[in-house]
Design goal:
Thrombin, subunit H; 489 residues; globular; 6-stranded antiparallel barrel; 31% strand; 4 helices; single chain; 8-stranded mixed sheet; mainly beta; Peptidase_S1_PA
């Protein structure tokens, strides 16, 4: 991801090798970084722990990409290689790491961890392990004593969950089920691992419309679907048990932890938490943008985050922002980093209906450095994705699934618009690091492909520790594409 024009820093990550052999020759590259280090970024481990047996890795210079590891390491900007552990030592707690790599990949077949050879290696990573389980998504390790936080996000590429008791608090959302006698939806189809599940969504939506049962979201998880019911008084006897040979799980809308309305941070001065309110000469995704001052309350404004630079079919260029950060009473002017002591960078000219995304026409004097942009068609479950907001700095998570959410057409109409959204898992207790002010931040993968734009992260309920974003497809389907800004830097 490109950063501000000045100054230039180097982002650093560590590769921790837990093996009696050492590695060398890993190619390095550089990247720009924020002017200050934010708390969430500073406390999130950047290390990659590689757990192997002796002889599992080729030790010749430059051989890391030809090793037996299935997880590509090319996204590491820099790596400090550390050799720890010797044969015959008593098991020790692994060093703090965001991702634990193994000589095998658990993303395609997480259940393989129960095989004797793989199970033995996974069992040995944490010295107080007393149990292992896998639900097809998360690998759960039961420990006698939980290690100090922060905990790893992945193990062998699959999401990791540490617990004192298997079956307690696993993060995969599974709601209510109903009996087989309730019937089926699309029983002639096989919905598992669909590349494009939108046709199935319409079948489900139309079925519930025919039942006159109000639903607010349909989530697709590859092996099952989650259907969110608007009312707690819904007759459960009418709910189908399967859709396209997949189990249907049900939640009520008030269990989803959604905010009553999208929130923008209200500021008079920089808020506690040390956000990055620095002013940058070159604009980019993930910088502080604000509304103008409220005329009736001098000194008060709303704070959100810059998205990406797009162009329409006519070649006109626009920067995306969270539209709720610019209510009508504050006018249409957009500032970076703050009004008063910042600069006026452009004007909000259009809202993308029902998406909470607005388009800003930048001033001719502004330069915007972009990232690449791609549809959801190449998304892979458990793929590492990242957000870089002025409130958190660079943090990562795992793409888990997509959904269609119902958005009212307007306050006075019962008609709903269905918006395509993405769901990202941030790790255990990650929700506390995701404030409302990061609304509008771009969510992208290791290749720089933008998946969507941060909307909210439930602090409680069924989707705690996940974050929801408006999918980039909502803009692509309206004829907007990413601007290639490489020539401007």
């Amino acid at each position: 991801m490109s950063g501000p024009s000045t100054p230039e820093h180097t982002a650093t990550a560590e590769l921790l090798l837990v093996s009696p052999v050492a590695l060398s020759g890993l190619a390095l590259s550089s990247s720009r970084k924020r002017r200050i280090t934010l708390t969430a970024e500073a406390t999130s481990p950047k290390k990659i722990a590689v757990i192997t047996r002796p002889g599992a890795v080729n030790t010749q210079p430059g051989s890391i990409h030809q090793s037996t590891f299935p997880n590509p390491l090319s996204w590491l900007r820099m790596a400090e290689l550390v050799h720890i552990g010797t044969p015959g030592q008593a098991p020790q707690m692994p060093p703090p790491a965001r991702h634990i790599l193994l000589p095998f990949d658990l993303r395609d077949q997480p259940g393989d961890v129960m095989g004797s050879e793989k199970r033995e290696l996974v069992w040995s990573i944490f010295p107080e392990t007393t149990g292992i389980s896998c639900d097809g998504f998360f690998v759960a390790l039961q420990l006698r004593t939980l290690p100090p936080k922060p905990w790893p996000l992945t193990i062998g590429g699959a999401p990791l969950h540490l617990t004192l008791e298997i079956g307690s608090g696993e993060p995969i959302p599974r709601g209510r089920i109903v009996g087989l006698k309730n019937g089926f939806i699309a029983k002639d189809q096989n919905g598992r691992n669909m590349k494009d599940w939108e046709p199935l969504f319409h079948v489900i939506k139309d079925h519930f419309q025919g039942l006159e049962i109000s639903i607010t979201e349909v989530m697709y998880w590859g092996a099952f679907v989650i259907i969110v019911l608007k009312h707690r008084g819904t007759d459960m006897g009418k709910l189908p048990c399967q859709a396209a040979k997949m189990r249907c799980f049900y939640f009520f809308d008030d269990e989803m932890g959604r905010p009553a309305a999208p929130q923008a941070r209200r500021l008079t001065d920089p808020v506690p938490g040390n956000p990055d309110n620095s002013q940058y000469d070159t604009l980019q995704p993930g910088l502080r943008v604000t509304s103008s001052y409220l005329p009736s309350h001098p000194g008060i404004f709303l704070s959100t985050t810059s998205g990406v630079l797009l162009k329409d079919q006519h070649g006109s260029e626009f920067m995306t922002v969270a539209s709720h950060g610019f209510p009508a009473e504050r006018g249409t002017q957009v500032f970076h980093a703050q009004p008063g002591n910042g600069r006026n960078i452009g004007e909000l000219i259009m809202e993308i209906s029902h998406t909470d995304i607005a388009l800003v026409k930048l001033r001719d004097t502004e330069i915007f450095s972009n990232v690449t942009f791609q549809s959801d068609k190449n998304r892979q479950r458990f793929e590492t994705v990242s957000v870089d907001s002025p409130d958190t700095g660079f943090i990562d998570g795992l793409f888990m699934g997509t959904s269609f959410q119902a958005i009212p057409s307007d306050e006075n109409s019962p008609k709903l618009q269905w918006i395509f959204t993405t769901w990202i898992y941030g790790g255990q207790d990650s929700a506390i690091n995701l404030p409302e002010g990061m609304c509008g931040s771009a969510i992208w993968n290791e290749d720089g492909d933008v998946f969507g734009f941060f909307r909210y992260s439930p602090k409680q309920g069924a989707m705690k520790n996940y974050c929801c974003g408006i999918a980039a497809d909502e803009l692509i389907n309206r004829g907007l594409t990413l601007v290639n800004t490489s020539y401007k830097i």
